[in-house]
């Protein structure tokens, strides 16, 4: 029995990617189809019961992967699947700044025709208001995102200094 419990615990922890490696991958995921596929594969085992931040990254991986679908119908289905998962994750943890950043990073880069751009101002405001409350590691990650983000103007980035 003890051996079975050890195996189950090992499998659960070994199966989920660590957040640091996911963050590192996320910065380059949209640069190529290969990166998008690797990111999707890395998060394939994540389910709705896992850490909500990892679920949000999984949703982002589906959204980013949809960009490389060849058929329009499949592209739309994948996009809707990813958007639905991301929105349910935000709803389940609305005060999580990293989940808000993930949604903002997706919404600022999707084509307007998707209609998935409605939370940009809300997420920018949330990130700006709660940035100082975060630990140093997360602040650095958020700062790197904000400095390259299309959504923040130079004036709006002043809170980083």
Q: What does it look like?
A:
The chain is an all-alpha fold. The chain contains eight helices and no strands. Helix 3 (33-42) packs antiparallel against helix 4 (52-66) and helix 4 (52-66) runs antiparallel to helix 5 (72-92).
Termini, distance in Å? Answer: 55 Å
Mean of pLDDT = 90
Strand content: under 5%
- Kindly name the structural category: mainly alpha
Write down the overall geometry: globular
Low confidence ranges? 1-13
Largest sheet: none
The number of strands is: 0
Rg measurement, Å:
17 Å
Question: What fraction, in percent, of the residue positions are helical?
Answer: 55-70%
Give the number of helices. Answer: 8
What string gives the helices and strands in order? HHHHHHHH
Key features?
8 helices, mainly alpha, 161 residues
Task: Please render the helix and strand layout as text.
Blueprint: H1 2-15, H2 19-26, H3 33-42, H4 52-66, H5 72-92, H6 97-107, H7 120-130, H8 136-148
């Amino acid at each position: 029995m003890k051996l079975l419990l050890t195996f189950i615990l090992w499998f659960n922890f070994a199966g989920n990617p660590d957040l640091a490696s996911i963050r590192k991958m996320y910065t380059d995921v949209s640069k190529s189809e290969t990166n998008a596929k690797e990111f999707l594969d890395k998060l394939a085992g994540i389910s709705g019961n896992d850490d909500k931040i990892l679920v949000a990254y999984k949703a982002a991986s589906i959204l980013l992967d949809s960009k490389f679908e060849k058929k329009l119908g499949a592209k739309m289905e994948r996009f809707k699947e990813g958007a639905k998962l991301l929105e349910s994750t935000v709803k389940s943890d609305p005060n999580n700044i990293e989940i808000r950043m993930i949604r903002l990073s997706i919404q600022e880069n999707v084509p307007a025709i998707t209609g998935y751009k409605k939370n940009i101002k809300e997420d920018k405001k949330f990130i700006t208001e709660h940035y100082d409350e975060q630990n140093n590691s997360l602040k650095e990650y958020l700062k790197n995102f904000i400095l390259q983000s299309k959504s923040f103007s130079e004036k709006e980035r002043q809170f980083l200094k």
